[in-house]
Specification:
Length: about 270
């Protein structure tokens, strides 16, 4: 019987098995994007030996709640905060591109930069903000998030696997085309969610990572309660629990989960061009 992915709650071990995940490349438009969207999942994967790299399009220089701050200093602070947060989660490397916070667009130049990073890391799984607006809560659909998602999706297919796209990357840098297998899109519209990951036990790591983004939280206690409430609601929305690589589920009732729109870019049945 085929399981409905929308109702399936995957354990981290089952997720690794399903995705064949050895390397994950996570993209965010700003520091803290991935920490809000997927920090607990990232921590669980990294703890199991999955190599996780984070790539930020901007340094988040337009962020923060203080008035009159210097954008250069804010960028420096936020980059340092992200490095600390990444260390909490077990992320191997943080790569920073040079887009301007608040002005991200899915240009050919940005797609080229993303393809370069993808070909350097050669991930099995790519995480990114979703390119579609979620009307249930506008804050998770910041224009930079949408632009980041669109650029990443365009890079995943067809650019990164097309040797005729940005051929200079192969000719000058030795970065050959390859195929990405899976996309996990964060902050998806509710109707797009088809994957939930059981992250009970990793909530403290997620909150600790978010605490590192001190410049962004005028009310840390409210932020933490919002995050925990969201994790509980995502878990409650799931049905079947997939623990195929772990044996019977125990203690998952009333747990915590993160959700994604899972897209198979290249699978066993993928036919090029359609």
């Amino acid at each position: 019987m085929t399981r409905d992915r929308r109702s399936t709650l995957h354990s981290p071990d089952a997720l690794i098995d399903v995705l064949g995940a050895r390397r994950v490349l996570a993209f965010g438009a700003h520091p803290d994007d991935v920490d809000f969207g997927a920090a607990a999942t990232v921590a669980a994967l990294a703890e199991r030996g999955v190599d996780v790299t984070l790539c930020l399009l901007t340094a988040g220089d337009a962020g923060g709640f203080e008035t009159g701050h210097d954008r250069v200093e804010m960028a420096r602070r936020r980059q340092a905060e992200q490095e600390e947060a990444a260390a909490v989660l077990g992320v191997r490397e943080v790569i920073l591109l040079d887009e301007k916070d608040g002005w991200v667009e899915p240009t050919a130049d940005l797609i080229r930069q993303i393809v370069r990073v993808m070909r350097q890391v050669r991930p099995d799984v790519v995480m990114s903000p979703h390119p579609e607006r979620a009307w249930d809560r506008m804050q998770k659909s910041h224009p930079d998030h949408l632009a980041c998602g669109e650029a990443v999706v365009r890079a995943c297919y067809p650019a990164v696997e097309n040797p005729f796209a940005f051929p200079e990357l192969a000719e000058q840098e030795g970065l050959e085309a390859f195929k990405i297998r899976h996309l996990m899109l964060m902050a998806a519209p509710e109707e797009r969610v088809n994957l939930r990951v059981e992250v009970s036990g990793y909530e403290d790591r997620k909150l600790e990572a978010l605490r590192q983004h001190f410049s962004q939280h005028p009310d840390p206690a409210r932020m933490e309660e919002f995050v925990l409430t969201r994790l509980r609601r995502i878990h409650a929305a799931a049905g079947i629990v997939d623990t195929s690589s772990e044996g019977p589920a125990e203690g998952l009732a009333g747990g915590l989960a993160e959700d994604f729109h899972w897209v198979v870019v290249n699978g066993p049945d993928t036919f090029a061009g359609f």
